[in-house]
């Protein structure tokens, strides 16, 4: 079969070449390409060759057709360019056709409708269906990548879905502009939308908002509900999270058989922010009673009102039993009146310690035979008026160290105050307007640096 195929190619080439005006001067034959031996292409003497000569080379496996270019002068590179061994000059044989076993295999492939000719790594084969698609990288197990992909019949911005019974793609109720995702046939009839800013909204058929989940102007994440919330199960508020009541909003919780309005919160804040003020919360008689019983210990309880932008009035009750009535104006200035419990919370240390805001109002005692220190905390406007009491119990020196260029009474910036007197006591109060811890009272000898 291979020989018949080569004979067919040879006759076709002879007819094709003979039909051209620049027909070859001579036809030559060879059985190998190089080697300079009898029967080799490069054994033909260059003096016997003229431009456009043709040579057919038939080996045991391949069939070559060469064209003589008398002015080439190119370097020899078998099998593409062959130079005569004798009297070559600029004459070069140039390969114009190569027939091999793979080409013979291709000639024998069936011409069945739907077949593709593909290489399988060894020869040429005919494939169809998913086999051919897989060879092209488009099979069911492939993941082709397209620069662009247009689907006709889909409304702009709608996310398509596959319809049943081979009906192709259709419009789904999901809509997106690449940033926001919305539920509805288009932007004008959406009923549920998720925005890139983090806001989720649910709307009714009139496009009025029913539920909003997302950040408000100050970045606080909220759940906003128009109407009633009737959960079928428990509703939990995570630790350190808040419930906000907006302007003129009512809030009540009834869960016992007697209908008493009681509410229990564990580790959460309740914030009432009505425009006209809080008139009633609690019993129907208008007493306005609020009972708050934390299930776990908390550092402080705040009850406060919001006035002008940045201004706040309220009461702070600490875990030590102290109470403080405070006011913060819109510039951040704090005015406060404190009511102290009949005794202070004592915290005894045996090693150097960094004081935190949780220690305000405590008696901090250093009981060590070695020199130790208390490092005061970073403070600002909200810590104005904070007090700390220090007592030295051990034989070692006790030193208090300021930070952030704060002063301790008449010390230098980021200064210190220390004592070596046993049972020496000093109470400091932070005055923000002077960025200074002032000495309220002292017993014993202290030195400022």
Topology:
Layout: H1 2-18, E1 27-30, E2 54-58, E3 63-69, E4 81-82, E5 92-99, H2 101-107, E6 116-119, E7 124-127, H3 129-135, E8 158-162, E9 169-176, E10 181-183, E11 192-194, E12 200-203, E13 209-215, E14 221-225, E15 242-245, E16 269-272, E17 300-306, E18 312-318, E19 323-328, E20 334-339, E21 346-349, E22 353-354, E23 363-366, E24 372-375, E25 387-392, E26 398-401, E27 407-408, E28 416-419, E29 425-431, E30 436-443, E31 447-448
Number of helices: 3
- The percent range for strand residues is 25-35%
Radius of gyration: 47 Å
So, the CATH homologous superfamily of the domain at 344-448? gp9
- Label the CATH architecture of the domain at 344-448: Sandwich
Taking the sheet with the most strands, its summary is: 7 strands, antiparallel
Helix content: under 10%
Strand order, sheet with most strands: 8-9-10-11-12-13-14
**Using DSSP, what is the number of strands?**
31
- Do you know the CATH topology of the domain at 344-448? Jelly Rolls
**What class do helices, strands and sheet pairing give?**
mainly beta
Which stretches of 5+ consecutive residues score pLDDT under 50?
A: 1-6, 15-22, 253-290
How far apart are the termini? Answer: 109 Å
CATH class of the domain at 344-448: Mainly Beta
Net shape: elongated
The overall pLDDT average reads 75
């Amino acid at each position: 079969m291979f020989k018949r195929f080569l004979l067919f190619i040879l006759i076709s080439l002879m007819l094709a070449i003979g039909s051209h005006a620049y027909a070859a001067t001579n036809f030559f034959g060879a059985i190998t390409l190089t080697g300079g031996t009898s029967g080799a292409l490069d054994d033909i003497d260059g003096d016997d060759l003229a431009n456009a000569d043709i040579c057919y080379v038939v080996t045991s496996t391949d069939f070559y057709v060469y064209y003589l270019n008398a002015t080439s002068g190119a370097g020899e590179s078998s099998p593409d360019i062959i130079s005569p061994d004798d009297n070559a000059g600029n004459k070069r044989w140039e390969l114009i056709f190569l027939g091999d076993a793979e080409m013979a295999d291709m000639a024998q492939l069936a011409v069945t409708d739907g077949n593709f000719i593909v290489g399988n790594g060894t020869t040429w084969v005919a494939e169809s269906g998913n086999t051919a698609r897989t060879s092209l990288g488009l099979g069911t197990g492939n993941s082709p990548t397209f620069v662009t992909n247009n689907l006709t019949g889909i409304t702009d911005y709608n996310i398509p879905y596959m319809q049943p019974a081979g009906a192709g793609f259709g419009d789904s109720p999901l809509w997106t502009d690449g940033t926001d995702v919305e539920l509805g046939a288009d932007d004008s009839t959406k009923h549920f939308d998720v925005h890139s800013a983090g806001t989720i909204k649910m709307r009714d058929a009139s496009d009025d908002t029913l539920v909003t989940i997302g950040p408000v102007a100050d970045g606080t994440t909220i759940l906003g509900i128009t109407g009633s919330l009737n959960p079928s199960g428990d509703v939990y508020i995570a630790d350190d999270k808040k419930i906000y009541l907006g302007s003129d909003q009512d809030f009540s919780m009834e869960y016992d058989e007697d209908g008493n309005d009681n509410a229990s919160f564990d580790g959460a804040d309740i914030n009432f922010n009505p425009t006209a003020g809080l008139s009633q919360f609690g019993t129907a008689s208008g007493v306005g009673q609020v009972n708050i019983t934390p299930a776990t210990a908390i550092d402080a309880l705040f009850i406060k009102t919001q006035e002008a932008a940045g201004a706040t009035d309220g009461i702070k009750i600490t875990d030590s039993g102290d109470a403080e009535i405070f006011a913060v104006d819109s510039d951040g200035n704090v005015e406060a009146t404190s009511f102290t419990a009949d005794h202070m919370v004592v915290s005894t240390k045996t090693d150097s310690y960094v004081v935190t805001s949780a220690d305000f109002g405590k008696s901090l005692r250093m009981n060590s035979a070695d020199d130790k220190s208390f490092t005061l905390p970073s403070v600002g406007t909200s810590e104005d008026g904070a007090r700390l009491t220090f007592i030295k119990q051990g034989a070692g020196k006790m030193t208090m160290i300021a930070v952030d260029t704060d002063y301790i009474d008449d010390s230098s910036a980021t200064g210190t105050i220390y004592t070596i007197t046993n049972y020496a006591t000093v109470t400091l109060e932070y005055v923000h307007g002077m960025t200074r811890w002032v000495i309220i009272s002292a017993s014993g000898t202290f030195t400022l640096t």
